[in-house]
From TrEMBL:
<feature type="region of interest" description="Disordered">
    <location>
        <begin position="1"/>
        <end position="69"/>
    </location>
</feature>
<dbReference type="InterPro" id="IPR028037">
    <property type="entry name" value="Antitoxin_Rv0909/MT0933"/>
</dbReference>
<protein>
    <submittedName>
        <fullName>Antitoxin</fullName>
    </submittedName>
</protein>
<dbReference type="Pfam" id="PF14013">
    <property type="entry name" value="MT0933_antitox"/>
</dbReference>
<feature type="compositionally biased region" description="Basic and acidic residues">
    <location>
        <begin position="1"/>
        <end position="34"/>
    </location>
</feature>
Length: 69
């Protein structure tokens, strides 16, 4: 069992706490970089929430989806 598998097992059932931690870490990065990489940070937050949290949102309260045309 890899470290990543162990981490996923530990986080099961704690999705809301994972989301809070990801948000807090992203906010810290935004503060430290003075918002220079906000778009990249938001993308990383969405991916982490999708993989380990409750599914993630794209900052709009909506789940990330395909680009609108």
């Amino acid at each position: 069992m890899s470290v990543l598998d162990k981490l996923k097992n530990m986080l099961k059932g704690h999705e809301s706490q994972v989301d809070k931690g990801v948000d807090k870490a992203g906010d810290k990065v935004d503060d430290r970089t003075q918002g220079k990489y906000t778009g990249q940070v938001d993308t990383a937050q969405d991916k982490l929430k999708g993989q380990y949290g409750s599914g993630g949102t794209s900052g709009t309260g909506q789940p990330p989806g395909p680009p609108q045309s």
